């Protein structure tokens, strides 16, 4: 299970960290209170703040960090049953984890839907508007087109239901970089069997790890990248990790040379 804390080392602020979190920097987005940015009522009054955030998270602005690549390595080694993420930055996909292994519980910018006629729009169509600071509108009915990000009160994507089969099956639960404050996601952390060890890798002890700890819980506090490096070393995967990061960096460099900016 992952949250915004796995992407802060990539330069994306989380939500609730005092000072640096998005919810402490409201004036930048022109929102009256933190959650407004993900509330439908506010969105229909003023969709601009949400699209300012969307523009910032434009795919390509940020790169995965060691944490994302560690999760990719778990997959490469056949150990990743599923990655449940609350993040909407898409860095799990960029790191090379296949869609079949992912549950993007709070949605994705990869697609969008008209809020009036519910027509589905491919991502490319609305990014041009977002990048030009325009609110994207439906070509059919002129309704506002909203990326498929889950707002407060909205249903989670259907894939979230996979948790019903995944969690009872897991042999180990790793929870990284989340405050475990948002439901129903937070409660997944109690969905594994009682005998299953749960590992929390986070700046501080959160959620069920604080108020209903289990005897086999392991809590590793501090910076997520530092903790992941330590874990990788314990697993004897340091070289595999180095190779994977090297391979991915080379890929980006090759793309850069071929890309339009190379000239
Ligand atoms: P939060 O901002 O609530 O929590 C991030 C957690 O990561 C905090 O406990 C931080 O201390 C920790 N953290 C941050 N940087 C870290 C680092 N470098 N190393 C270790 N820990 C670090 O973010 P989420 O739990 O993901 O909803 O928030 C859940 C949901 O609330 C989000 O998905 C978002 C928001 O409303 C939507 O986007 C719809
Ligand atoms: Zn429409």
Automatic annotation (TrEMBL):
PROSITE patterns: SIRTUIN. Binds 1 zinc ion per subunit. Keywords: Metal-binding, NAD, Transferase, Zinc. Zn(2+) binds at residues 114, 117, 138, 141. It is an enzyme of class 2 (transferase). Its EC number is 2.3.1.286. Coiled coil: none annotated. It holds the Pfam family SIR2. NAD(+) binds at residues 4-8, 14-16, 86-89, 178-179, 202-204. Its cofactor is Zn(2+). It comes from the Eukaryota. Residues 1-238 form the Deacetylase sirtuin-type domain. Transmembrane segments: none annotated. It catalyses: N(6)-acetyl-L-lysyl-[protein] + NAD(+) + H2O = 2''-O-acetyl-ADP-D-ribose + nicotinamide + L-lysyl-[protein]. The active site is at 106 (proton acceptor). Belongs to the sirtuin family. Class I subfamily. This is NAD-dependent protein deacetylase. The gene is SIRT3.
